[in-house]
Amino acid sequence: MQKFKNLLIAFVFTSSMPFYAQNAVIDANLKSDLQTEIQYLSGTDKDNLVDWDFWISEGRKSGKWTTIGVPSCWEQQGFGAYNYGQDKEDNRAQEYGLYKYTFNAPKNWKNKNINIVFEGVMTDAEVKINGKLAGEIHQGAFYEFKYAITDLLKYGKQNILEVKVHKVSANESINHAERNADFWIFGGIYRPVYLEILPKENIERVAIDAKANGIINADIFTTSKKVHAIAATLSNVNGQVIENLKIDKSFKEEGRWHITTKANNVKTWNPEFPNLYVLHIKILDKQNKILHKISETIGFRTVEVLEGDGIYVNGKRIKFKGVNRHSFHPKSGRTTSKSWSLEQALQIKDMNMNAVRMAHYPPDKHFLQVCDSLGLFVINEICTWHNPTLDTKVARKIVKETVVRDVNHPSIVLWANGNEQGWNTEVDDDYAKWDIQKREVIHPWSIYKKTNTIHYSHYHSLINDAYSKDKILFPTEFLHGLYDGGHGAGLDDYWNIMWNLPLSAGGFLWDFADEGIERTDKNNEIDLDGNHAPDGIVGPYGEKEGSYFTIKEVWSPIYIEDRFIKEDFNGIFRIENRYHYTNLDKCTMTAKWIKFNGPKDNKNATILNTTKVDLPNLAPITKGQFTVDKPKNWKEADALYLTAVNQYGKEIFTWSYPVSIPKKANSSQIDVAEKGSISTKTENEFIKVEANGISYLFSEKTGLLQEVKKGNTTIPLKDGPIILNQKDKIKSITVNSSEEKVEILVVFEEGKWSPGWSTLKEYRSDIIKWTVNANGLLDVKVEFKGYRNLKGFRGITFSFPETQVAGMKWLGDGPYRVWRNRMKGTEFNVWENDYNNTITGHSGFVYPEFKGFFSNLYWAKIKGNNNNGFTVYCNSPQVYLRMLTPENAPDTRKGRLDPKFPKGDISFVMNIPAIGTKFQKPESTGPHGNPEHYFGNDDNPITIDLTFDFN
């Protein structure tokens, strides 16, 4: 454990990589009698702890004095017991802990004011200095508090800090808000503790309102009687002075000075251009001598919530592309770090999001600093949970602590007075008392004043034609992401309405990361408390699930209309600039024409041509088009890639478009030149064909493949192709042999007309046609009826034991599986996945998941154990590969999260199911969640044409 003492921490945002880099700079040279000095008594984050003496009342390691690293959740240091918020009261841990720490107070502090600051303690904290109470017991786990301890210190001597921490609060309304909630419960001093050393004449705090037009209003809180004037200077984040500000107006009242000034030629703050400045404020005496100076990072922006219209920032109506986020790390619980905040915020930005809601409490200060720097709108929230609400006395204290700490962050655009009926309406007006910017207050999951923040609304409720249709609609939670459901599944449908509905202000997905904790009492295994905590787009350590990339495409600020490249492709793509502040010419785009190699090649692809795409100079929220130049050999390509990059060099998204149809792309990969002898015989109700060292066995009664052997090795693909949802009887099976091939034709009886199928009276016969070629290749062509199919699959299936599958390499969309309502986010390419048995959000956390449906199959090399694999070429377009059947997680909420799979193990299908969410069946998430499918009729039967290579 490393001890940190006498460190002045200044957060500096570097300019070498604008807005995408933040560094904490430790510089002892900044120490000055005119500035605030910070001395840490604890460590600074989860990776830098300081040992304090510690004793705990019950649970693990209880009843004896030892040491603990601070800051930390004591459960993660091996103490006490674990609880999830929804545990029954009888099973709830009740421990308390005693902390001791000795520190020195230098003699030169005698003429200073000293505060001790706790950034967060769970849950009730009694603080003593040298045996005397520093102040009243603090209640509430997620809020910064401080005590003035100037008169309690012994200067030039050692001082003893003692903290008694109760995990369970003496205030029952806090217990309901914080310990009954839907998240993990921890105990301890989990955020840093430090001393503030200030001049006697000092600024206690400042509250700043920096408008988009450059006007600054600031409240400077000081009790000093010597203050005669205020001076203000504006610099950039690198410390270069931009302007000595002229104070246009100032007045003082009890405990506060107010000033108004105006900065010239400043750039506004928004998520696309998060321009930051530093406002330096000095209090001066009558001789203009500086008494104290303080610096605050600010951004110039104006937030307006216009009733019946929308939420505006700097005059632009905003669509929130947001997510909910807990302050949480799997190793350290609620104790995090700035590097972790930065890592998670970068992932949020990478998904093309522009907003984050704090769930369900104020975050670490460094996360808000990162949001300021990278550019993310923030809804900041106090912690409440359903009814009953916080009692008014403690709620008033908590609102003040939240707003006073966070008031100056430009990223914060709204306050949330609790969550889901936990709103104490008596304190709604308290936010304005402490917020100089007078930001609006919302009630998440409520129709309140100007807004409707309904949670988990069904797709159809977004029509917004109820009595609240004049409210600004933005669900602060939607598409709950339990396991693999929600998030990306349904988002395309939801966003089509949200984007085009004038009163929609977007919404916030639930939630960012699986809140899985490493249990120190269970050999550090990840615990998600059943289905309570696996709700993330990413896993506990940031492992990306499939929805991550779906969101990245759906929420791309460059929207490209769906496009198919055919023989008469003209190169034109229709486009919409969905940025709020950025002209499209700030971005760049590259086109690549790709030729893919086959399954036997180590090199997956060759780039035939690369060109720059001239994007139009589209203003935000406008439409246009661009043209991709077609090289002379464009028809030789298998795919076109379009990669868009933003003004900071970050990839927005890469769109991929197949150029060659499967039959053409596969023609050069299937080896048909090799010849060999072929023979066939029928006996014991089997048709046996041998060709080029491979033996095939077919059922004489069903025509299904029963066995494949290569020499003495059995390749266990069999029992297919079963035509899914086909009940017709076999009419005939015929075998035709020649020197080059053996054909087996299975013809089914004609199916009769059924209402809803077609206007035709009869259907043509379904057929299965096997062709064993003399070189050993096996072709199968299956034709079957097309009709409206409400629930079942249309396609064919085979058996192949899961225990024999080692992995696969394929050309198609990937590398993630898809659902009918989560098709976007994949890329057409050659992919390779090893077998895994990940249950999304529950176990394994190895992504991409190996099992599931994969779209747009061209070919797949199935790697078997003991060299018993094979390669299959799919010569029919728009076919899904079904690879095995994923296991279900426990309690999938009445089957909403376990879509049905066809029988068998490996299938080739024309339609796939959608997936639901924790609270919704798939059909309530939009059109793509509906089980109804439409297929061809007698004039256009469904054809699946495959070639198997067992060599």
Automatic annotation (TrEMBL):
GO terms for molecular function: beta-galactosidase activity; carbohydrate binding. GO terms for cellular component: beta-galactosidase complex. This is beta-galactosidase. Residues 209-301 form the Glycoside hydrolase family 2 immunoglobulin-like beta-sandwich domain. Residues 921-940 are annotated as: Disordered. Keywords: Calcium, Glycosidase, Hydrolase, Signal. Its cofactor is Ca(2+). Residues 1-21 form the signal peptide. The keyword Lyase does not apply. Monomer. Its EC number is 3.2.1.23. It comes from the Bacteria. It comes from Polaribacter reichenbachii.
